[in-house]
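Today's session is about reading a structure prediction critically. Students often jump straight to the picture, but the first step is always the sequence itself: look for stretches that repeat, for charged clusters, for runs of hydrophobic residues. Only then move on to the predicted structure, which in these notes is written as discrete structure tokens rather than atom positions. Here is the chain we will use throughout the hour.
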Amino acid sequence: MQENKVKNEDILLHCCCAPCSTTCIEELIDDGYNIILWFSNDNIYPKEENEKRFAELIKLARFHNLKVIRNSYDHDKWLAAVSGLENEKEGGERCSICFDYNLNITHKKALELGIKYFTTTLTVSRYKNSLKIFEVGNKYSGFVEKNFKKKNGYARSIKLSKDLNLYRQKYCGCEFSLRDALLFEKQRAEKSKNI
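Below is the predicted structure for this chain, in token form.
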């Protein structure tokens, strides 16, 4: 389903974290949706990080007076889904499988709850390919294409995160993105020492 204005329709919003959710919530409210936040992120590692991100989402939900639903955490199931793709670079095939994994679960939850529409906060990140996410999401009925990067969405999410004092993580979520982020930081530090 393409972006459009609605009136009082429920939408299930898959939330990867509170910072990414900030501007998405604003835009969906502006579009006329009644938002239910959905935290289902088996990809996030370690479990303590998953807990921390959920706690921050609760803080954001309270600010907007929104309902949050949480899925049980099963990192082993996610690892099995991306098995063999551990060495893929960020943004590669592993990420596409991860998008499908999370959007499939979100679609099933929306159907279970009788919610006609669903979407994801993943498109707000400048590190995520929105077209890839749309391609995956459009496999499922009720998916709403929202490119939350538009209208300076990413920059706005950073500002809102600061304003609301939300924890902002430095990697997407899985141990492989954490590995890549740490490697990038190490290379950057070494480069700055050599200047």
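Discussion point for the tutorial: The chain has a mean pLDDT of 95.
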